[in-house]
Design a protein that fits this description.
The chain has twelve helices and ten strands. By secondary structure, the chain is α/β, with parallel strands linked by helices.
Length: 283
């Protein structure tokens, strides 16, 4: 346990040392104390960078609780270090059951937050359904992802969203840099750690040519893959073609694919008819 704790501390301090913009924000918040006494509930992928964001808010005087926005994405060493070393209430572990996941989301809402920080909109959705007891105190929130923003905009159109939410995903720093470069790199970090496969020479299909899809395609091309794009938006499909990629419908791409990566934020991208024509060994 001590080894896991030390590992988490090292990861958090490494992130602190390499997040220059956040360091400037931390210095200003600590000086101005504008967050002092505020309660902030967060649902994010619990790892070193998001952990350092949560610590920055805590160090600025806010009362912070953090849960995971995905049952499978938590770095247990970081979660442990946040709780036991830095004193930040963290409700997250890798491999949570569905019951544990929602129990943890409820735990961060128990303090009746002033603000919420969400990734995927599960926390905000919970506030508007089974946790309306905590809703009246909320002054606002933000949402990080395309998928979460889509959910919240649908709620807003129906008059069901009861506090203002900033779409972080619409910020230039998010979609131009995080989506394109961050997702482009981290997708292949995860892919290679999981499969130990060589990308060069493979036919790699990217479903969706938004900012995440562009980043994934760019990195795949740089590693020597033969990249094929599937895209339902004709303008984006033309853009992919002009960027030098093959473009075709999924039903044509599926039989020749060695690797398939979806980056659409939607479901039913790979359907039964596509699965039936995949070649053996396609990842």
């Amino acid at each position: 346990m001590d080894e896991l704790l030390q590992k988490g501390i090292r990861r958090l301090e490494w992130a602190r040392a390499h997040m220059d913009v956040l360091a400037d924000v931390r210095e200003r918040l600590n000086r101005e104390q504008t967050l002092k006494g505020l309660r902030i509930s967060m649902a994010l992928h619990v790892e070193a960078k998001t952990g350092m964001l949560a610590l920055t808010l805590k160090e600025a005087g806010a009362q912070v609780r953090l849960a995971s926005c995905n049952p499978l994405s938590t770095d247990d060493s970081v979660s442990l270090a946040l709780n036991d070393h830095y004193g930040l209430e963290t409700y997250a572990k890798k491999g949570e059951s569905n019951e544990e996941y929602y129990s943890n989301l409820n735990a961060v809402l128990d303090m009746k937050p002033d603000f919420v920080i969400d990734d995927g909109a599960d926390l905000i959705t919970l506030l508007h359904t089974t946790r309306q007891d905590a809703l009246s105190n909320v002054k606002g929130g933000n949402e990080e992802t395309t998928t979460g923003v889509m959910r919240l905009r649908a709620m807003a159109e129906e008059g069901m969203l009861h506090f203002p939410v900033i779409s972080v995903n619409d910020a230039h720093m998010k979609y131009l840099f995080d989506n394109r470069y961050g997702t482009g790199q981290s997708t292949f970090d995860g892919f290679m750690n999981s499969t130990n496969l060589l990308v060069a020479g493979k036919r790699l299909v990217v479903a969706g040519y938004g900012w995440c899809g562009k980043g994934i395609a760019m990195r795949a091309k740089g590693m020597g893959a033969n990249v094929i794009i599937t895209e339902v938006d004709p303008i984006r499909a033309i853009e992919a073609k002009m960027d030098g990629f093959e473009v075709m419908p999924m039903i044509n791409a599926a039989p020749i694919a060695d690797i398939m990566i979806t980056a659409t934020g939607n479901k039913d991208i790979l359907r039964k008819e596509h699965m039936e024509v995949l070649k053996d060994g396609c990842v």
